[in-house]
Amino acid sequence: xxxxxxxxxxxxxxxxxxxxxxxxxxxxxxxxxxxxxxxxxxxxxxxxxxxxxxxxxxxxxxxxxxxxxxxxxxxxxxxxxxxxxxxxxxxxxxxxxxxxxxxxxxxxxxxxxxxxxxxxxxxxxxxxxxxxxxxxxxxxxxxxxxxxxxxxxxxxxxxxxxxxxxxxxxxxxxxxxxxxxxxxxxxxxxxxxxxxxxxxxxxxxxxxxxxxxxxxxxxxxxxxxxxxxxxxxxxxxxxxxxxxxxxxxxxxxxxxxxxxxxxxxxxxxxxxxxxxxxxxxxxxxxx
Length: 287
Fold this sequence. Notes:
The structure is a single chain. The chain has about 290 residues and is of the alpha/beta class. Helices cover about 45% and strands about 15% of the residues. Among the domains are: about 10-35 and about 225-265, no CATH class; about 130-220, Lambda Exonuclease, Chain A (Alpha-Beta Complex), CATH 3.90.320.10. It has 12 helices and 6 strands. Strands 1, 2, 3, 4, 5 and 6 form a 6-stranded mixed beta sheet that branches. The longest helix is centred in the last third of the chain and has 24 residues, at about 215-240. The relative contact order is 0.18. Mean pLDDT is about 90; it is low at about 1-5.
């Protein structure tokens, strides 16, 4: 009898994890293999690129002096962010024609329309923007980028994360906060101080979700992440990254190589690179 586990390919075990990589592995180990272990290129999506541009516009707003943070300034910062991304592969890969580019620009501006109804940026005491943080948990490095770290009126830390997708229903609210709980752990590890509040700002709807991290929620992050890393290590050692089908499959860039859809994972490494290069070589506006 053939030992399929012994015959399976092995992959290097990652030494760091971020909230997105933890989510990726728990959602679908096979997708995690393609994106995080083999690091295969993915076709950019409008939603992801819009999100990056909106984050950049808000970063530019908070670089301004406090009194200059006006709706007109944010609109100008959005125009600047769009110009910065005009030559970025994540934008070029969308292959937008003139009408598509105009629609994309309108959608980006629409995502900041509700912002000033959500908070007054002139009162925000930011101490970090797009802040890279990391901390060691045993042999593993946990890392992440905080959209905004600020101080409240009492001098306590507040973590703010911008979201450009839809706000979750009540049943999924706690799951959506998992990422910012992760950042709460990083703050405590790096600064020795747990944030007083973590919040998600859903710009598309104008909703804000807030929670107060606890010692238990911070401890859960290390427990969960360590368990995920052990599963990642096992999958890398055995080569057994099993696909997990869900609605997310409809948006997966690697579906054609996924065994759940009759694909051959071993062909992804060469074919995904070739497909990505062909996409970027297409003229703007090509389907």
